[in-house]
Amino acid sequence: RYAMKINGSTFLTNAAFGTYASSQFGFVRGCAYTVTVEHVAHNTNWAKGTDFDYYALVDGWGKRLTNQVGDLTGDTWYTNAAKGLLIYDPDEILGEYWTDGVTATPYFSGKSAILYALKVDVDVDTDRDGVVEDTDDESGEEAWTINRGAFTIPASVSSLYTNYNVTTLPTLVVRGGLAFPAGHKLRFFRPSSSSALLLLDAVGTVVMGTNVVPSNTYYQIPGPYPLTNDLIYYNVSRVSRTGTIGSSAFEYQLGLQEIDSATNVVCTDTVLLKVAPLILPWDGDAVESVYADSNSVSATITNIPNLILLPATTYQFLQDYVKFTKAQFADTNIADIVVDLKDLNYGPFVKNICPATGELRRVEWNVTGNGGNIIVTPPLANAPYGKVIVGDKYPSAVPYIAAQGIQTNVITTVPTSWLEMGHADEGISFVTSNKILIPDPWTAADIIHAAITNGQGTNKICFGIQPTDTWANTNTHKSFLKLAVATTAAGSFKTNVLSSPGMDAATNTLSVSNAVFEVGDYLRVDSEVLKVTATNATTVTVLRAQAGTTGAAHTTASPIYALSDIMRWNLPIDTPSVHTNMVNVTNALSAALGSYAVTYVKLPVLFDKYGDHFVAGTANAVNCLVYPGQGIFMQDTGSVDFNTYISNHVSSVVFINIWDGYHCWWGEVHCGTATRRTISFTPPWWQALPGWQ
Questions:
Q1: Distance separating alpha carbons of residues 373 and 370, to the nearest angstrom
Q2: DSSP states of 586-606 as a string?
Q3: Rounded CA gap, 375 and 386, in Å?
Q4: How is residue 545 annotated by DSSP?
């Protein structure tokens, strides 16, 4: 009779001579067990005399021995990969041993085998509580559901970086302290479908990923073995959710393998990492910092709090370079991800904003800039992080935004092709959750008209769209008369007053004091626009109620003047007109917002023509920086009348002057700044959007 002992304790004996016994033993993964065979008793009545034949198997594994000396071949391993057992039995005590009639010392005396209940363990933050735990994060680590499963975050590798700052990167933990056979090693394995996943060591060096050694498929942990302590690694995706990373699920598998000296895989643990979506803030979110280019600013921009001036570049419109986003990958872990929009003129800006030692991460969306064409609405009932508006002239960002699965149903119906720059921020600015600033030529026309009729037509405002139209250039400061009133061939303004008896609401003739009007002129008197169809000295025949105005009576001596070309293409007179295009903008936006009620706050802006398109000629106050708690920063218009109107209709306006560096190059404060904002993640986004995939 025999006994099998595990770690010195008898586990199994056969009850009678010549019989077999078996039982189950619960091996704990990651532990090693010493297995011995001992002789208990022999049958003295055995006719052939005493022998020590025996049969000892563990999990069905052992070797048949007929010659205990000649049969030894050195180290002998048995493996059962399905159950993760590995037996080291160099003396070959396990198996079947028999030699008829031998009466010698038992072959197995003083010998032992070692059984390894194999376990390798790599853990990720499966429960998303911000801590990688051995037990709590084990269940479900190889799968992903909306309530459980780990994230990685996107962060590009490029020549801009020498390494990564691992602050706030998702963590992988390789567990140490597990039983480990001599000669075995650990390696990470990444299938080809996960080729965009990068593995980083504790100092931020990419050890597994694009353009690094060793290969992109495996990374062998250098040891020393056995591991006595846990090892920390970090992970990122070199691309964001763009539809180009091998799987529509935007997820990666990563395996930790135990290999023997022949690189046979004897044990594996696998985790699944989902690429966290990028979420764009809306302009009502709290500001963390504002970036601007130091080469193109004036002193007044420094009035903006938390301003970071970057080294000078060759292109100042930072809004077109980047979008600041957030990627939440655990309850309390939120990463700042800078989306490089790949503007053709971006120069070194992205490198300056994302230094190698900084915590800001960078990914690329190949949309050739146009960040000013991407605007986020406030949170909506069916969109807790708002919807994204992308003007129709440059829609290339839409697939990237939609791929995040957060701010879906991108609004692409807002027309911007009529603008030379074609950016949505030229026509829309959410300043509160239900107020939208829009440029309105009629408001500008009314302010100018009031000044002219009050004898203040010489009041001035800045107007220009060329680099030479600087603030210091006296020609930039144009009088209201020059902007609004047409001139004769001799250069005099076509201004007049109504002669007696004035006009009633229906007549189509009028008398004026001077014969300056011509057929085709559009005239303004009070709030009505008239079109001249015939003239006879100081008697003028007109069509009433033009440009959407209402016919009304006008008294004797009412000022009346012919509208300039600038006013005609701004008001709904010429085709196309700025007014008509802006009506299309607000109609499209209102339709897209549905039942969400908003108020359009009309600000005075006049546009100039550039070919067949339009560029803001006066300061476009809509193109502003919304800074909750600090103010709304706008370009000074150069007009007391305009500034006063804006201040009376928009709370907390702060006028700054960056005219030369921005307006003269077809941009304003919003174009020239890039703003990093805080997004509220209470509750976490996966709880706010339970249908996300």
A1: 5
A2: HHHHHHHHTT---EEEEEE--
A3: 10
A4: E
* Strand order from edge to edge, sheet including 307-310: 307-310, 287-293, 673-677
**Torsion region of 50: left, alpha or beta (phi above 0 gives left; psi -120 to 50 gives alpha):** beta
Three-state secondary structure call for residue 680: coil
> How many Cα atoms within 13 Å fall on the side-chain side of residue 78?
20
Tell me the per-residue pLDDT of 347-386, one tens digit each, with 9 for 90 and over.
556 666 766 545 678 888 889 899 999 999 999 998 999 9
Question: 213 pLDDT exceeds 50?
Answer: no
The rounded distance, in Å, linking the Cα atoms of 397 and 389 is: 10
CA-closest candidate to residue 523, choices 553, 497, 502: 497
**If you ran DSSP here, which 8-state letter would residue 286 be given?**
P
For the entire predicted model, the pTM comes to: 0.89
**Structural tokens at position 418:** 């009529």
Q: Please, what is the end-to-end C-alpha distance for the chain in angstroms?
A: 62
Token pair for residue 420?
A: 């030379």
Q: What is the phi-psi region of residue 491: left when phi exceeds 0, alpha when psi lies from -120 to 50, beta otherwise? A: left
Neighbours of 158 (CB within 10 A): 13
3-state secondary structure 408-465: CCCECCCCCCCECCCCHHHCCEEEECCEEEEEEHHHHHHHHHHHHHCCCCCCEEECCC
Q: Which sign, positive or negative, has the C-alpha torsion 386, 387, 388, 391?
A: negative
**Measured distance CA(308)–CA(310) in Å, rounded:** 6
Tokens of 600: 């359009």
Name residues whose C-beta falls within 8 Å of residue 250's C-beta, 6 or more positions apart in sequence.
241, 274, 275, 403
Give residue-wise pLDDT tens across range 383-430.
999 999 999 999 999 999 999 999 988 999 999 999 999 999 999 999
For residue 171, give the nearest of 221, 109, 234 by alpha carbon.
Answer: 234
3-state helix, strand, coil in the chain (%, to 5): 15, 30, 55
